[in-house]
Amino acid sequence: MASTTSPEHDTTEDNRIKVWFRFVPREGWLPYSTEGLWATRLGEDTARLESVPFLQEGAAMGDVVRFATDAEGLHWAKERAEVSGSCTVRVLAVPSGPLGSSAQAVHERLAPFGLGGEVFSKDLPLVAFNVPPDAELGQIKALLIRGEEDGWWHFEASCVTDAWRNA
After folding, report:
1. What is the DSSP string of the chain?
2. Residue pLDDT, tens place only, 109-166
C-alpha cells in the first residue's frame, strides 16, 4: 500500500520483494507520495509486478520494472523494462449511489469479466482491477462508462494499452 515499512518486510523467501514507487501526490486525492507493490525478483535489478497499483500511474500487474536498492534495502522503481499488456482500472463506488460504499458490489458488477482486484481499505473502498490483455475490453469500458453515468461509481484507467484506447 502507500505507507513505508522496514526493509525486513520487503523481501520474502520465495523471491518476492516489495518494489517502491515515488510520485507527487495528486491534488484532492490521497496524500501519499510512495506506494509499495509486491513483485517477483527476476534478476539483480528487475522484478515482475504481482500487485495492482492503487496510486502509481502508468504501471500494471505483470509489468517488469527495473529498480535500484538503497542503503536501507528498499527497492525503488526506476522504469518499466517490459510492458505486460495488462491495464489498471480503479473504481470507487459513489456512497449515495445504488451500490452505496460497497467494494463487494463493484466486484460483483465486474465479476462476469473475470477481473481480479484489490480493495484499498474498509474506510476507502477503492477497488484496483487488473484487466488482462485478453479481456473483453470494449464491454468492460462500456460497463464502466455506463456505471459512472448511472451514478454507481467513479473510475479511472491509470495504465492503458492501445487495445484499451481503441476498444
Report:
1. --S---GGGSB-TTSEEEEEEE-PPPTTS---SEEEEEEEE-SSSEEEE-S--SS-SS--TT-EEEEEE-TTS-EEEEEEEE--S-EEEEEEE-TTSTTTT-HHHHHHHHGGGT-EEEE--SSS-EEEEEE-TTS-HHHHHHHHHHHHHTTSEEEEEEE--HHHHH-
2. 999 999 988 999 989 999 999 999 999 999 999 999 999 999 999 999 999 999 999 9
